[in-house]
Design a protein that fits this description.
There is one protein chain. Helices cover about 40% and strands about 15% of the residues. The chain is of the alpha/beta class and about 375 residues long. The strands form 2 sheets. The chain has a 6-stranded parallel sheet, with helices on both faces. It is globular, with a radius of gyration of 22 Å.
Amino acid sequence: MFPCLPSPLFCRIVEILNLDRVIIYGEDWRGSMPRAFSQALWQLGYQNTIFDYTKFLAPRNTNLFARKMSQWLDKINSPRRLTAINDSFVELTCSFRPELVMVFKGLHVLPDTIRSIQKLGSLVINCHVDEFFNPTYTRPYTAESFQLYDMHFSMRPHLFDEYRRKGARAICFYECAYDPTVFYPLSVNGQSIPRCQVSFVGSWSPYRTELIESLAGLDAEVHIWGWGWNRARRQLSKYSNIKIWNRLAYREDFCKVIAGSDICLNILTPDNRDQSNLRNFEIPACGGFQLAQRSRQILQTFAEDRNIACYDGPEELRSKVVHFIKHPDQRKDIQHAGHELVTTAGHSFTDRCRSVLEQVSNLLALPEDSSNAPGLRTGGLNSSFRT
């Protein structure tokens, strides 16, 4: 359905690396980044398998009480589950014998696990999803694990100097992207998702609540979808134009929310120190009009008022919402241009996967004493990774 033909340069890189087998560590569900990268690897000709660590954790649920119970169970069973995850991960690596191991997040990956996999001859890289040192996700072993990965791929180039100071052996950039099998224009005619002037899909935070509250009293319905918004129900329920839907909006439901909204808000996550996010690509991929937080990084890909609209702070957000509700033709022009940019200019996860593999090749092709690859482990690599 979505053909992808490898470039001649990429085919040459595959030939040089002799890289045939990859293990992906991460969550395996439709719409997740690990699943998208796995599909991309198959398209590009690689055997791969996903180690889904979430199978060792308590089941997650959209109900707030059930989620709290799951988190509590994970906490009291943490040592046992941590051991099971890492033992099973190493066992899979021993049997599958990958040349490359791609870890997404890696919250539960212990330092000794990374060392064990490297001793088998596999290159171990970490593809950051959240900010690696986000306090919400750090553990006592986080800093040590960080220094052991052969390479890091991050969407946050403004943090690269900090990562080098914290001991990253090599750090490369990979941009956010979208999965065309999950995010695409979808009609809402006859569907259960209600239409609205403004929508936001994402988890609750005090910062996001402040921005949403700036839209109170407008002659525009504001619908909120996502986890945790019960915490803001008392604060926001007094405004007749703001409605909190007590449910998540994944996959097709996300596409429907975007299709049924005149304006789709994109609010970054301060705890992640984000300058861009996946929503920057998912919203236009679904054909939505995106009103996003302004950042230098996102404006390197998008052009403000041409294929994206931007704001900075509550006051500008409110004024931009009022403006674009009154100017539907301008909104539609930006909406169509954004969709064309994202879907035709190489912003799928297959494109990102190809870029990651090319950067792996480029870094490994450098002389061992190159200052461009500080501390990159070479002694334990499988010879197939060397040019």
